[in-house]
Amino acid sequence: MKETALGVTEIFETMEYGPAPESDKPALDWLAGHDPAFGIYLGGRWVKGSDGKLFDVINPATTQRLARVVQAGAPDVDAAVRAAREALPGWAALPGHARARHLYALARGVQKHARLLAVLESMDNGKSIRETRDLDIPLVARHFYHHAGWAQLRDAEFPGHGPVGVVGQIIPWNFPLLMVAWKVAPALAAGNTVVLKPAEFTPLTALAFAEIAHQAGLPAGVLNVITGDGTTGKLLVDHPDVDKIAFTGSTEVGRIIRQATAGSGKRLSLELGGKSPFVVFEDADLDSVVEGVVDAIWFNQGQVCCAGSRLLVQEGVAQRLIAKLRARMEKLRVGPPLDKAVDMGAIVAPVQLERIRGLVNKGVEEGAKMWQPSWACPTEGYFYPPTLFTDVSPAATIAQVEIFGPVLVSMSFRTPTEAVELANNTPYGLAASVWTENINLALDIAPKIKAGVVWVNCTNLFDAASGFGGYRESGFGREGGREGMWEYLKADWESGLGARD
Amino acid sequence: MKVTREQQQKTTERLAGASAPPAARPPVIGEERDVEVHRRPVRNPGAPLDLESVRALRVNRSAVERRAATIPTRRTVKKQWQAAWLLRAITCMDLTTLQGDDTPGNVLRLCAKARRPLRDDLVDALGVAHLGLKVGAVCVYHALVPVAAQALAGSGIPVAAVSTGFPAGLSPFRQRVEEIHASLEAGAREIDVVITRAHVLTGNWEALYDEVRAFREACGDALLKVILGTGELATLTNVARASRVAMLAGADFIKTSTGKEPVNATLPVGVVMVRQIREYAEDTGHQVGFKPAGGIRTAKSALEWLYLMKEELGNAWLAAELFRLGASALLTDIERQLEHFVTGRYSASHRHPMV
Predict the structure, then answer these.
(1) Which of A182, A419, B340, B354 has the fewest CB atoms within 10 Å, i.e. is most exposed?
(2) Residue B355: its pLDDT value, please?
(3) Cis ω before B172 (30° cut-off from 0)
(4) Do A83 and A106 have their domain in common?
(5) What is the Cα–Cα distance from B187 to B175, expressed in whole angstroms?
(6) Nearest Cα to Cα of residue A57 among A190, A207, A164, A175
């Protein structure tokens, strides 16, 4: 979508969409203010890494370097945990309404800087500006507002409970700032202090958020942000003075963390992978189903843990639905994420792109039929087109393995019972959606699917008041709502047991 | 309107390439076009009423509302693209006045505007004089048809008459059919009919089919636009079913509303109707047009309707042959946006010749 000197007359005839770029200036100005490198945020101060090691943060849509950030080492993690420990008594002793005031201030800070955060998130992650502007950032603010309420009500609503303590939080790259909110808001509301490690691909909005928190007057040490790759994460997980680890990411890493924390007395919550079923019955509104699929698997380039990546369609309407889906896929637009008229942006990093390509090839090798739209993706940057597999058997690799990309696999079923069997035929259990115009059928099927969230006639809808989390290999623990608060609370009698004291 | 040299210079730069008309390509709309231009090569002949396919239709309201809500957020056009799209919107407008106090005077004014929808200096600045811009049609009550037909003679702009007991459609059936004949005799080339909403609300699809069939026959060569009155059809499923029945009965266009209902053209209703048009085209191979009407007042909303057409139906539905916007005040806002494109400044509406 290069800027061309097309005239009005030509466009009048072709009626093409032109470029509609959101300005990257606010983000570039902000980044320029942090040249040559970002620090890490400990105890209310920005400091350099202990051994001076840095790594590059890349814009996946342009492959250009955006910034350099610290590869935090053991002394840094140590200092961060110490800062959090020191801040804990003061923060935990604050009355609920005082903590609530801080959370309200964070929410307003996010709203005040919404444009910068949306642009920065898009540049850092590759997701479209429409999504960061309309979904990510508003939900972030909503999470802080919601949890300000819980901060104020904690003592009344959770009598006999207090904070867990120092919480280590490790978050993924697919919704960088939204995951900050999902982790930090309930932790702070309950009275914990936090050491947060954003993903190495996407640390920038977490750093921007730390600045916002600093400006908003959050007490020193309550929120500490350290950057780095998996080794930094491991240091945090293994740190003896951390009371709880909250992790969102791959099932593979989740397993390692589970092993590392077992027997240590550390609390743990895990939000891991998924291979969520998208179940379509023959009486569904098929045109709306098509849009549902777009929201399910082509949202955020399919890099969504709860993406509806397994399309299960009742046999009688399967052909019609697939035909409609193909027509819809032709109309999707993949392009520069900052363009306000694209549906899909870039894949976060080459390693992820390779993974998607590898699994798609595997799917073709195993005999599934692949379909991609006729148009081509931009060649500069890490882009991958929306992809649809038909003739997939449950035994196929692509039907079992989480691809974490814009790749949909479809299967058909004969009866509602078989639909449930296929839906549950996965090691995961994060989310599901059920499409039918028959409420009795929906109410019958939804509870039979083993998943943390089941959407009826919609998908990928989130709210701060609604708990999110999984079963089986999708992890445990909930985020959001009252159920999410329990993850960051400890019964007072537990403190007397002295397990960790 | 004073335009400084500096502004003109800027405009010239911005329009780089705009002033040179395409060499080999004939203009989409000729200087002197015939009304026939508005007709698709193959007119929808209709099809037998297939009750089963009508009754099987189900529309999920909340899903449709979500889709409708993201159409304006998923797509946008800027700069010369926006200007070109707005020009296209002008050519798709059914410039309308449907008031009890309409007189030959204000209808003549409307027709004059229909011939010259955009100020000459803006047309020149945009370099589109060769397009011979004019609106899609002028839409009036029967009594004003002769005035409009005379005022538009030779312009190639058809007169559309609202008919069949507009807006409620509850006068005796024979009179409603007779009204169509009378409007055709008076010079109307397009007929916007209203349906009996009761047929939809009671599920009497045969009666609806027969009614629209009769209107179609009465229309002869004239274009038949069927107003569903969606604001009074209660559910989106009803809108879908009524759309399908109207097309099966031979509608050339399906149109949302009379403009007299409490709620008129909304994007969710539009989503449902254009999806039915798509389904009908897939089933029968015939392309039926779409006309949202009522409450479309801003250039931005006109663009949103165009996005809807392009996304759900394709480029063929971005021209007056298959798409009309029923509006009047809309034109002034489009002119203001185009003037902003040319000068970088927003003008007051009094700077544009009134509709």
Answers:
(1) B354
(2) 85
(3) no
(4) yes
(5) 18
(6) A207
